[in-house]
User: Fold Nitroreductase family protein from Pseudodonghicola flavimaris.
Amino acid sequence: MISKDQLRYEAVPLPHRARMDDEQMLLSAEAFHDQMRRRHSVRNYSDRPVPRAVIESCLRTAGTAPSGANHQPWHFAAIADPALKQQIRAEAEAEERRFYAGGGGDEWIRALEPIGTTAEKPHLTRAPWLIVVFAQRWGRFEDGSRYKNYYVPESVNIATGILLAALHHAGLAALTHTPNPMKFLNAALNRPEAEKPTMIIALGHPAADATVPAAAKIKKPLEEIASFFD
Assistant:
């Protein structure tokens, strides 16, 4: 992606420009909020398949995210293979059992009670796709020499947020899952030591009897999440 002969600055005209008046901007912003407030983290999936082309399009959208020095320090491993999903579930549940047995600490485990989670993660095999997000701590030039990536967690988090929005926009439900530690994912997916797994995203169509915890739909009001200094 990055070559040494490209390490120079060149300005090009802004290729795309939004042309909206104030009213159009507000309508567009409110329409997007209305769509995103309908996003739900789902643990119950139907067996309806999701075409690979849809996943590819959503990942291309995630790849448009801004990143430190434009190094794009992310990799998304998309998994539909049942055997591989079963392996990931088995290893993730082993980590989760240690967490719920006391590794997470009493306060953390109590905080999860209103969400209703346990060490069992059937969504990891039931969902038609898993996407494992990796953060690339360094990269390599074409000659094999290493270069450092910058603002890696921030860049990967932005890309992941855009991915979740793209999946929802495509009519899919998704659930983020972060077993800890997650190093087993490098071996399972043949990813290099430079990459650190950050989360597993299960995705698909919600089951007919899908539910969500009531507590998860309580969102802080704007005055608690934002300050204005006009």
About this structure: The chain is about 40% helix and 15% strand. Helices lie at 22-36, 52-62, 82-103, 106-112, 123-126, 152-169, 184-189, 222-225.
